[in-house]
Amino acid sequence: MQKEDLVQCHNRIAPYIHRTPVLTSRLIDKMAGAELFFKCENFQRMGAYKMRGATNAILQLSEGQRSKGVVTHSSGNFAQALTLAAKSLGVKAFIVMPTSAPRVKKDAVLEYGGKIIECEPTLEARKAAALKIEAEMGTTFIHPSNSVNVIIGQGTACMELLEEHPDLDFIVVPVGGGGLIAGTALAAHYFGNKCKVIGSEPFAVDDAYRSLQSGKIELNKTTDTIADGLKTNLGDKNFPLIRKYVNSIIRVTEEEIVEAMRLIWERMKIIIEPSSAVAFAAVLNEKDKFKNKKVGIIISGGNVDLKKLPF
Predict the structure, then answer these.
(1) Catalytic residue check, 307
(2) Cβ contacts of residue 80 below 8 Å, gap of 6+?
(3) Are residues 121 and 269 in the same domain?
(4) One pLDDT digit (tens) per residue for the chain, 311 residues
(5) Does the active-site annotation cover 216?
(6) Do 136 and 152 share a domain, yes or no?
(7) CATH number, domain at 304?
(8) Structural domain of residue 85, as residue ranges?
(9) Residue 295 shares a structural domain with residue 223
(10) Same domain flag for 15 and 159
């Protein structure tokens, strides 16, 4: 994956996505002891950065592939992203969702015109259901985080951030399936100036932290975290990029995530989901590391179930 891939991808998807704002807060800077620049992907279409990768993945398909539609398995943001991207491009979307997926996310998929296929809430069931649709309908499977075209698409958020603030010392992002951090690390490598990329994870689902230590993809033993977007594990396409370009991963507690989320709602007046708060929590957790530095934070999304606010 080269610099040119990111540039071409950004040009390709630009008509279908928002260029999201970068916000700052003097009060939060003072609290963190650093200059923080929040890339607000919570203002992206469908409310998360995943619109970028989903759009790029569909645009890279042939006319023949597009005519048969796309399929993915997702319990949340990628389900919405792929459905909206497909709708924007006149393509049918089939979404395998576990029975346990939040109603609000199922409603969003239906609203965007996606066809939901429900399955048992296990990864095996999700994969099997997606494979069945692929075989029966001839659709193209698009993985939420372990696809080269998705990874490059997600990297465009960091690319935009560095165009506006080329002198960042660090960029901190949450880690779930690994698509965002892999794309961010690629973009920082090509467009940053010695800019280090740092991942952030809840202690409860610290598979990426352990994967970097062991050198192989680790799985989670529990899924007991408020950061529902970060429960998945890394894949064979994104892990090599993470090993090569990511500096380190910081783990945070559930209490730190809730406090970080509350601070941003309260001080910056913007709605972010718990998974997004993990990155800000990591900066507050290791203030010495970031002291007097310029730090970009990618606010990955703002799709919150308002009936289940943690504060």
Answers:
(1) no
(2) 46, 47, 48, 50, 105, 108, 109, 112, 303
(3) no
(4) 899 999 999 999 999 999 999 999 999 999 999 999 999 999 999 999 999 999 999 999 999 999 999 999 987 789 999 999 999 999 999 999 988 877 878 998 999 999 999 999 888 899 999 999 999 999 999 999 999 999 999 999 999 999 999 999 999 999 999 999 999 999 999 999 999 999 999 999 999 999 999 999 999 988 889 998 898 899 999 999 999 999 999 999 999 999 999 999 999 999 999 999 999 999 999 999 999 999 999 999 998 888 888 98
(5) no
(6) no
(7) 3.40.50.1100
(8) 51-141
(9) yes
(10) yes
Domain boundary among 124, 141, 158: 141
Catalytic residue among 25, 39, 67, 75: 75
Q: Which of 39, 50, 196, 231 is catalytic?
A: 50
Domain boundary (141, 172, 200) is at 141
Residues 274 and 198 in one domain: yes
Which DSSP category does 48 fall into? Answer: B
Residue 182 vs residues 6, 19, 151, 198: alpha-carbon distances, Å: 12, 20, 6, 11
Rounded distance, CA 150 to CA 247, Å?
22
